[in-house]
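ok trying again, last paste got cut off:
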Amino acid sequence: MKKLRFICAGVKALFYLKVLKRNYPLALRWQLLDRCSNRCLYCSLWKSPRKEMNLEEIKRILNEVKKAGTVRISYSGGEPLLRNDIYEIIRYTKILGISPSINTCGAMFEKKEKAIKLLDLVKISIDGKKETHDFIANRNGSFEEAIKAVELAKKWKVKTVITTTISNYNLDDIDFLLELSQKYNLKIKIFTILHLKES
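nice, full thing came through this time. structure:
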């Protein structure tokens, strides 16, 4: 049923784009906040966090994007699980019939079990072996948290993918990351090089 709904939305999007010459936002990536548990070397959001919207403002925007035809929303940050109202945000997204996913470093995973179990997809960031990942995240213990999040997501039967950002810091860890995805039988999404070490 969900697959049929997405196919219908895709057909409608093509109609808007080709016939009516209007954009149709099938999917959105929403940066809910700039705060994060990690201090990744390739990210600077956490250095100057902006004011965050409250729950009512978020619900109002969700109503608007639903009317516009959005069928998927990926919540990111920062770390979206740091929001105290993340369960309410995800729940309201589901009520509207929009498929929710999040990008997370895994730090708050166990504490936010109720919210995680509502998701259609969780994307967990792992950037290499323990030493590499913790170095890039600028926080000891980050790797173990991410691995625990992967294992909990599988235990809770939440669809999961591993995401990684390739840079000169972790080029030598690509094989490890591929093996890790095979170990947990998960897809891995690899993003573009964003940060290079100075020579």
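cool. The CA atoms of residues 27 and 192 lie 21 Å apart. Strands lie at 27-31, 72-76, 99-104, 121-125, 160-165, 187-191.
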